[in-house]
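Forwarding these from the shared drive since the link keeps breaking.
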Amino acid sequence: MKAVTVVGIGDDGCVGLSSKAMGAVARARVLAGGERHLDFFPQFDGERIVIKGDLLKSADRIAELSAEHTVCVLASGDPLFFGIGTLIIRKVGKEHVEFIPAPSSIQNAFSRIGVKWDDAEILSFHGRPIKGLITKLQTLSKLACLTDDSNSPSKIAKYLLSYGESDWRVFVCENLCGKEERIREFTVEELSETEGISDLNVLILLRKNPDWRPTPLLPFQGEDEYAKRLPKKGLITKKEVRILSLSALELRPDSVVWDIGAGSGAVSIEAAKIAREGRVHAIEIDPEGIEICEQNILSHKADNVSIIHGRAPEALEGLEEPDAVFIGGSKGSLNEIIHFSLARLKTGGCLVVNAITLDNVSEAYQIFRELGYLPEVTLVQISRGQKLADYLRYEALNPIHIFKIRKL
């Protein structure tokens, strides 16, 4: 018999427990769980541990008592599904823990609305930021959310509307399996104005449009798709250069990216859509550029991009360590920016510099050589077809050098 048994329990309490789960409670000398879980067992005469607030402290106490006593931990639904189960394993040891799961709140919610859920994305906002949700939605048609006070269903709905995300059927499933269970369907607009929803809820989002298709995995768009500074055809990294530069960064789904000299934000936005589970910090000093970048982030629904208004490298102070750094503009501080970025870049991460002028090309190469790196250099010379009367001619874009190094 294991020292700790973690039992999944629903709002129907003892009624929904198996004989095996009831036996685990009966054998225990220590019973731990939330207040509502412990209330289902008023007859229990052993030690009780109320799990509330400081989970680490509760887990430490459970581990301490498990050395001498049989412990049963009550947890909502499946304890290994966004639950306390992983923490208990870490504190007690996998070999000393047994799990008896109940159906999760997600399973119960989808069963109530009669929709299959094997193709649904599951997100928890328990103690987690909502930022990044909109970017993820661009590839999703079915989503279930576990909410909390900071990210309640109505607050999530307001956040969706701020990015124009209204084409959803929304279900709020409250107090599942309990006496006060309630299942309601809303529009996003209706939910944004609805208060009084129970804290015990699951929020489900289903696309209204059956013909909806997700954004491409490689979301590279032409310059005309972005707001940009004029004249000179807009200060924006050209599509072909963006493709090569982002490829050089070797982004993963959870990458943290610095885009230094973000300009119109095109590189930041497309990096954010590749790194959907990560974060992009767009650094820009020009106030007009900041405004345009904000506009593009909103219109392209990339809410995992944070704009940092300031001059690099000073503006980089305090940012989380990056997995990749892109330098598209330096305002004359290329040497300082490369040194600072390289010092903060994670080992194995990539640093990419786009250089247009001969001066910057020479400076970047010299800096890397002085640092002991032989950079990978690509000279990009792109010509695009342009209509000329009934013919097609080529129009050359400005050549650009792409420097890449990997931190040793």
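-- next protein --
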Amino acid sequence: MLTAQTIGAPVSDVFISYASADREQAGRLAHAFEALGWSVWWDRKIITGQVFDQAIEHELDTARSVVVLWSPYSIVSEWVRNEAAAAAARGVLLPALIAPVRLPLEFRRKQTADLGNWRGDPQDHGFQALCAGIRHLLGQPPATSNPPPPWPPQLKWSALGALILVAVIGFFTNNARQPPTDTAVTPDARPMTGMASWTTPLTSPAGLADLIVGTYSGDVISDAHGSSRSGVLITVTRLGPDRVRIHSDYTRVGTTDIALQRVDQQVLADGGDSSLIVYLDRQPPAILFNPRLELAYAGTRQ
């Protein structure tokens, strides 16, 4: 039974489904959609006095589009998976990846927007693809980009002259900075800049496994068939250059062998039925692990 606050309430253009750990990304996306003029519903808009599950069910059943944010946390969330299934049944599901994970089987054939590197840029290709899907479901015309008006001829020549002047100045400046021809400049003599503040190397001649081996301490933050649990230790051991074994005394985590791949500063699982992300650019390195896509573990290396 719906409460008085939901009866006659306006239909939302966009419903955002997400795991609680991804609230920051969901909020950023909600604000971006609202800036485009769309009405957005996410669970922060539940009015005091409303029954939580009834309010969500009403909004989910009436929203004109449903954006599901897939992450290591949401793929093991029964709430998110049920909301995605309900949206797919109505033909309004718009999935988006906010982290590199292996999607639940029933959603892998759906075209998915990639928001893994999105930080609010309205011109991001993944964000633009997601917005195109929303416009389609709302019956709105595709977005058009208007080219800038042509420059008047006098401004064209002024700009060209400025570019030539900058190029000439840059040429002579660079030549003036060159060392004499009889001075040998070796790589060791050059200043080192941008040095990472943490100790894990970004590359390893022995393979990816050596970058992530060790003991990690953290928590099981969600479990499709159990409860959350704090203070869980997992051990990552090397099986080969690009293959590791992940083991924990906590039986729900168990033991899993993982093949590895590298994407920027992240080491990921390469295939298989488990998801793994190790963030090398954090100090200490952080891990997100989803054995058999049944639970979500988050920890840091000791």
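Helices lie at 23-35, 52-62, 78-90, 125-138, 153-177, 209-212. Confidence is low (pLDDT under 50) at residues 1-7, 45-51, 146-160, 179-204.

- D.
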